[in-house]
Amino acid sequence: MTRVIFAAAIACVLAAAPATRASEPEMFGMGARSPAMAGTGVADAEGYDATYTNPAGLVGPTNRRLTLGYVHAGYALDMDGMHRPVDKTDGLVLGADIPIPFGGILRDRIALGLGFYFPFGVINRARSPFPDEPRLALLDNRTQVVSVLVAAGVRVHERVDVGVGVLALAALVGNIQIAPVGGRITTVAEEQLTTSLAPIIGARVRTFRWLTLGAVFRGESKSTYDIEITNSLGSYLPLTIPTLRIAGVAQFDPMQAAVEGAFRPLRWLTIDAGVTWKHWSAFGLPTENATLGTPPQPAPGFVDTAVPRIAAEATRRWLHLALSGRAGYYYEPTGARGPVLLDANRHVLTFGAGLTWTSRYTTLQVDAFVQWHHAQANEHVSGDFASLGFSIGVDL
Amino acid sequence: MVIAIALGAANARANPIDAFGYGSRAAAMGGAATAASEDSSANYYNPAGLVHGHDLRIDIGYRYAEPILRMNGRDIGVDASRGFLIGLVAPGHIGPFRFAFGASLWLPDQRLTRVRSLPFDQPRFVMFDNRPQRLYLAANLAIQIIPGLYIGGGLTFMSRTAGQLFLKGSVAVSDPDASSLVSKIDVDLQAVRYPQAGILWEPTPWLSIGASYRHSFVLKLDQQFRIDGNIGNPGLPPVVENGYLAVHSVSMDLFQPWQLTGGAALRLKRTILVTFDVTFARWSEFPVPAANLTLGLDIGVYNDKVNLPPPRSYPSSGFHDIVIPRAGIEWRAWQWPKMAIDLRGGYSYEPTPVPEQVGESSFADSDKHTFAVGAGLELTNVTSILPRPLAIDAHFAATYLPPRFNHKIDPLDPVGDFVADGVIVQIGIMLRTRF
């Protein structure tokens, strides 16, 4: 029975998961525990949360677990003094922890993890206004895309775990030609959806009983589009329409490196503290010029940022129950420098709770979180937004 | 100048698994696997077979197919089909009630999908031109009705894009390269689904009978271009203000017929399994694979100099339904306590659904005779690390297309009479693990 439910989840996940990647984990964190703890987890996340936070954490649990969750976020943001509508975030989260049941020396040493975020109604959205139109460069539509994370963790030593994962990405490439064929006008079109993978590599060391250190590297994640439109209507029109190229970046998460410590000063208390470096200076033009004669656009001019995070988790255990309370804070400085690609620094408070119930048949894990993002007002952007979510996991 | 382009272009196409099969075991048996699949290939051949086994299965493989397809003796360079196969089967039970879930993925290693709309009269191998160049993803559920009788069904998933592209700026009359245009985009990638189902019956220990149905699929490719704005030269007042050019192209693409397959598997001896399949494929619903185009234009003072030809209409494609027989054999040639070797062979005959090309179109195709061989190595409890059986399968198949002559009615036809023939060779390997 457990196998079946477990496989059902895998099947659903695979079925609904074209290879596309997005920023919901980057915006709010993966799962329901990490978002409640300010996006930490590099040093102590386990299960499918670890597919994004640090794949080395996958090798911790020894049970197959399937998790189903929901994430919602609403935005109240102003841009240049006017309300700026941003699509709500609404999506399902699916996670699977798959310890591989090898025997011998590999027993309990290798595990796979799958983490997915499915926004309702769309797999990926590429929406970018004209280059001279101000927009919320890092908030508009960022969560309107499927996130697919596949990772593996390996216990190489009693104190050392390592992990590697990938983010599956999609890019749209094509061309459309309007041409006369046989004395009639027709179109010849081709579009390709291509893939690229962004790596996630992590390690975790249990130095003392009260201290675990973790580090993770996440490669740049980018979804691009590039469509060329040509025509051969010269003999039918008194003017020549130039070749047009519609190209740009639909989704972008920067390369990141994070280090973190998980301190356990008391048996019931865990404190996570870490910092994440984000390579925002690699942010390219969201929309390239369509013709060669168009004056060059100024570079986005983004800068790299460092995101400090701190969070705490307190756990009380009874016979078959364990209840955890979580809270955290992180400061997300913006890499954007305007005047068209707008954003704001953010102060983020997070809260959450978790309940674990263990019975003779299975273990049930319920988690919930709330995040409040306060955009530090600048001359263009101000406002707040909030996200909430929950998940239910079952050991199979 | 503003250019608006509305795209309804889909990124999905006819089924590459129809063309080359799924998994090395089934492919080596000529694709006759409707009554003989219980690994992840059952997601394609017969979802009911998923519940036949008892183990959690994870399969990983790779397949490469190279078409050498010729028109008038010249290879026209149809792209190879290559990629990874990843499958999962997980059976379980609640008391005596057994059921299973499965998923299969064909992941091309060159691109996820490619969609292409060609001119109606452009010569092409219509059955192979783009068919393998897409992702295949299927998920199924199977249950046991009574011991020996199973049913299953599920969905196959594809993706399509829909949305709009816009450009604005100015188009230069005397030097098009001096045109200054910028763009914006609003495109969504959306999911597309179609169903499949199957039934499997084992009346005796030596006989299995199965049937499966795969639904049809066709994709509407809807592309709109609209050009609004000014026309002139940089630095000068515009010659035309608020002109436009609108292009709307609609075509049907990536057709897959609905298919009904019946199959049987006979275990003649403990070591010999013989399989047969017959598939009915509804190719007569094949739509014309070309664009219907409408144009609109207003460029002010230049309107009198416009000489756009009228849009084109097309005759019916005239495809017809076909019946495809398949046969396969599997022989356990060697059996040891920890290792066994299976040898396999198969044959299928797929008549062409394409009529002789006598008019404007030049859809090349021919009957297809596929000969396949393969082998499987099964290892059991080889090491303490892998206590459950592990199988490695490999196959080779060659599809022969005998020469087919097409005589055009019009002696001035730009393509003229042509003969189509060719060979498609494929190799594959698959690792099947059980836990």
Provide a concise account of the structure shown.
The complex is a heterodimer of chains A (396) and B (435). Chain A is mainly beta.
Characterise this structure.
The complex is a heterodimer of chains A (396) and B (435). Chain A has 4 helices and 20 strands. Chain A has 396 residues and is mostly beta strands. Chain A has a single domain, classed as Porin (Beta Barrel). Chain A has a 14-stranded antiparallel β-barrel with strand order 1-3-4-7-8-9-10-13-14-15-16-18-19-20. Chain A is globular and about 85 Å long. Chain B is mainly beta. Chain B has one domain (2-434): Outer membrane protein transport protein (OMPP1/FadL/TodX) (Porin). In chain B, strand 17 (322-335) and strand 18 form a beta hairpin. The N and C termini of chain B lie far apart (63 Å).
What tags apply to this protein structure?
heterodimer, A: 396 residues, mainly beta, Porin, 14-stranded antiparallel β-barrel, two-stranded parallel sheet, 20 strands, disordered N terminus, B: 435 residues, 22 strands, 3% helix
CATH-level-2 architecture of chain A: Beta Barrel
CATH topology of chain B: Porin
From the N-terminal CA to the C-terminal CA of chain B, the straight-line distance is 63 Å
* Low-pLDDT ranges of chain B: 1-14
**Backbone structural class of chain B:** mainly beta
Give the class of chain A from helix and strand content and strand pairing.
Answer: mainly beta
Number of strands of chain A: 20
The CATH homologous superfamily of chain A is called Outer membrane protein transport protein (OMPP1/FadL/TodX)
Count of helices of chain B?
Answer: 3
Low-confidence stretches of chain A: 1-22
Strand content of chain B: over 45%
Largest sheet: number of strands, sense, barrel closure of chain B: 19 strands, mixed
**Strand element count of chain B:** 22
CATH-derived architecture of chain B: Beta Barrel
